[in-house]
Amino acid sequence: MASQPPATAKDKPDATAAKPLRADAQRNRDMLVEVAAVAFAAHGVDASLEEIARQAGVGIGTLYRHFPTREHLVEVVYRREVEGLCQAADELALHHSPDVALEQWMQRFVDYIATKRGLATSLRILLNTNSTLFSDVSGRVTLALRRLIEAAVADGSIRSDVDASDVLHALGGIYSAPDTKDWRDRSRRLVSLLMDGLRFGAGRSAKGGG
Fold it and tell me: What sequence ranges are listed for the domain HTH tetR-type (predicted)?
């Protein structure tokens, strides 16, 4: 009987594939990520992992079983924030008029930026060590914003000459604003001002008139 050729890496089962978690373990993991997102936004990436575990109602050993390193937890939190922001665009579009959905999404963007600012140091490290992290999420936020803007332009509630990349650039300026106690409130006011600018002259610009 002819001998079989050795199995190749393609033939072998993926030993690194994540196994489904038990329901209680999944709840613990989800709670850790939720608490960590709040902690990183409030205290930065140096937020205490022990305190995150305590607030999530688990021991520090449970945290490390799910997230062996701080950077691993940071990556999962970042992906969660991007996913939540993109899902919010679809949910808001279902329940609000296009301009209101756009404004509420931009307010949600402030919360996303708050968490991203807290993760800044570790994200810079991940940029050098995890080439797939940013390529995986690149463009998703822009696409979500573009859908909202196109819907608002189509119904005439904002100007017709609005470009999604320009709006995202304006929102990105929030990221580099000084980290003061009232940063979030000031950022929300700036979003309202930006939205007023998008609405101003909507009827005239939609018709191409002055």
Answer: 26-85
